[in-house]
Structures are given as C-alpha cells and as structure tokens.
Amino acid sequence: MNKNSISIITCTYNSGKTLQRTLQSLKCGSNVNWEHIIVDGYSKDETCDIINSYKKNKNNVKLIKTESKGVYNALNCGIDVAINEWTLFLHSDDELNIDISEIEKILKTILTSVACFSVQIQFDLSIRKYRTNRFTNILRPPPHTGMVFRTSVLKKIKFDEDYKISGDYKQILTIKNIDDKSFTPVFKDLVIMSAGGLSTKFKNLKMSLIEDRRVLKEMNVRFALFKVFIKKLIKIDQLRLRKYSNKK
Q1: Which of 36, 44, 110, 174 has the greatest CB tally within 10 Å of its CB?
Q2: Confidence of residue 200 (pLDDT cuts 50, 70, 90)
Q3: How far apart are CA 112 and CA 117, in angstroms?
Q4: Mind listing the domains of the chain with CATH numbers?
C-alpha cells in the first residue's frame, strides 16, 4: 500500500441534492497521493451525471456500480478496492472540513491503527459537536465519521452487514478488543455532517437501541441494555450551540 496516502470512500444513492456540495469540499494541495472511491447503487436521479462530471479528467476517482444492499455493504465494497494506507468515509451529504494535504501531514504522526478527529453536525440554527476522545470508555466512542483507519485493519475487520445502524459501533469495538490502544485522538474537526442521518433520526431510536444492545451482548458486556441507555444520555454532553453562520 502507498505509505501515508489516503483513500476516501463515498456511497451514493439518489444523492443529487447534496453530492455536489460534498465533492466541492474536497480540497487538496500538491504532491498528495489520494484516491476517491465512489460506490453508487444505480441512482435514478442526477447523481451519476454529477459523478461523471466530477471524475472527468481525473485519474484518482474510481466509480463502482453495485445493487443497493445497504450502506454497510456499499462501504465494504469500497474497502475491497482501496489501495492506500489510510481510509476515511465521507458520506454523500457531508463535507470535508480539512484540506486533504493537511490530513496527510497529520497521519504521518499517527502510530496507531485509527486517527480519531472531531466532527460537527449541522442543524438549522445550531451545531452539535462530537468531540474526539481516547476511547477508554466503550459507551463514549469517538465519532465514526471522524475516524481515519489504516486500510489493512479495515480489510480484516469490515462492517457487519447484518446491522442497519450499529455496524460501525461493532466495528470499532472489535478493533478496540483486539488492541485497546489502537485509537489516537486528533483535536480538529474532520467532517461537517448534515443532520438527519440514519443514527440521528428520532424514528430510528428504537432500532439504534436494539442494535447497540446486540453489539454489547456480542462483546459479552454485562448489563447491556442499561449501558445502551447510558450511552445515549452521554451524547447530551456533546451538544454545543453556535451560530449557524459558522457553516461553510
């Protein structure tokens, strides 16, 4: 694998309303080795037109077409073809907040398997900030969209496609169980997320609780249901309100 280079994986399905903003957020200085892997589930809107325009005259963009079998299946398809040392996941309605060349410089200092950045979630009049941490507490995981993984680790520990919402939580707990010191915090906001993702929608709260409990039970954690409720309450501490004008 190319040392210190970055693979960015984006999954799309009828993402025409948001994808252009996501792609425009990818900024890069010179002499940076990176690739952008886009996995599309045969979108029926303007998504493919946007992708084709974006990848025109670029040799670092890979487009994979695959039948939609869920977000974790799509992410795993991206992992399968990633060739660079590091991988980050940028969803099709999020924005990268740091220049790719700056990310590369930071990764040169990381000796562990995962670099954990902070992220922001944009609401109409506020920002909820998820702060990174050293992952000493399984109920306070760093934000998954703020993580940059060694690709070799992801190829061994992929997303569990039996999950709809908590596959990322299971993945990072599995990595932690193998090596408790795999995570290095980086105190910069990597991604600006749009509110309304699967895990943030209130209608998905029940499924999120059920799947988080299942993850903890698979990890042989005692009092799993009680701890899942504590995990949700902990997120209140991460709420930070600021003026919406901070959004790019």
Answers
A1: 36
A2: low
A3: 14
A4: 2-246 (3.90.550.10)
Using CA of residue 198, residue 202, residue 204, residue 207, what is the dihedral sign? positive
Kindly tell me the sign of the dihedral angle through the C-alpha atoms of 93, 94, 99, 102: negative
The DSSP code sequence of the chain is -EEEEEEEEEEESS-TTTHHHHHHT----SS--EEEEEEE---SSTHHHHHHHHHTT-SSEEEEE-----HHHHHHHHHHH--EEEEEE--TT-EE-S-HHHHHHHHTT--SSEEEEEEEEE-SS-EEEE------STTSPPPGGGEEEEHHHHHHS---TT-SSSHHHHHHHHHHHH-TT-EEEEEEEEEEEES--GGG-GGGHHHHHHHHHHHHHHTT-TTHHHHHHHHHHHGGGGEE---GGG--
Q: What is the mean pLDDT of residues 186-196?
A: 87
Query: Does the pLDDT value for residue 149 go beyond 80?
Result: yes
